């Protein structure tokens, strides 16, 4: 039997690992980003809710003779099983599930699975993987030509996050304690990837510096990890994008400067203390500013991500975010419209919010009214434009950049409204 793992558009790290597990169990398995592929059995890796509405993905699901879905969308399998014609959904981590599922089909004997029986969802509880060290991933030949924010691949060094941000699926999917891989397991994998032509690697995992976390941050483990990876790849080919502002200090930032491309990305989210509290972010604008300044003093460039249109965000909260950006002088800005990912607390908050109070459905009546976009999109658009003028070296917004930003916020607004539509459709079954 031929098993095909389909990871639409980009190879997700999880799909490579599951491919490695099946290969080592003796299965004929291949991995592809191409949605037109055929196979006796398809494993489909999905990371975003809006993928459930993608016509090509829906067509693949209805055409495949047998198909199972995994990835973060499995957090709320009722939606996946309602939207796609699939045979089962992996609801948690896939390593312990995949071989039994492929070899025996869906069954209540398998932990962490959901499937339909007589139209009713049967669901078994997932069990978190206790040992994250795993076999060598399945490395496709074209992994080396993939580019995700500049990296050929994002690798996982640990799972879980100590944070409990309402909008984030990481603690819901992976838990709030930290499980780390061993250094040897990670380095062996990266050596093999390099041998197969991969040059640029990014470390994923919510907050990079939580690698090796025991009862407290293990700086030594994190710094040793970066040093080891840089020795294999060269520092210009390694990035550790995501960090929490309260888990960095001089030593960590010095290691980032020395062993990586020299950037960090902080999830700043908002300049409003009230919105940060509502998000359960566990940080303050002051803490974020301190971290940005510390990074700059250490010679590390900073990208900041911001969320606009969070339920309850008033004009003055949004203004506080703009003020923050002017003070912080970030080298890069990522702005997004708050997305109520199914399975997160924000999904319930957004469902409880009357549409007339949701800036996603309110037409913008200010400076950008001629563009006919929602208030949430207008804030996002304006934040992107402001981000360009608040860089240490301000950038001119030319016509092409203006159009690209506008297109981006329109797409975001459309996708988030689609997610809201799904939440409303399945409200009775998921809340
Ligand atoms: S947003 Fe970042 S800090 Fe917050 S829960 Fe997610 S991974 Fe953790």
TrEMBL record:
The keyword S-adenosyl-L-methionine is assigned to this record: yes
Gene3D superfamilies, alphabetized: Cobalamin-binding domain, tm_1862 like domain
Protein name: Radical SAM domain protein
InterPro entries, A to Z: BchE-like, CHP04014_B12-bd/rSAM, Elp3/MiaA/NifB-like_rSAM, Methylthiotransferase_CS, rSAM, rSAM_horseshoe, rSAM_sf
A GO MF label: catalytic activity
Cofactor: [4Fe-4S] cluster
Cleavable signal peptide: none
Keyword Iron-sulfur annotated: yes
UniProt-listed PROSITE patterns: MTTASE_RADICAL, RADICAL_SAM
Residues annotated as domain Radical SAM core: 147-376
Keywords from the named record: 4Fe-4S, Iron, Iron-sulfur, Metal-binding, S-adenosyl-L-methionine
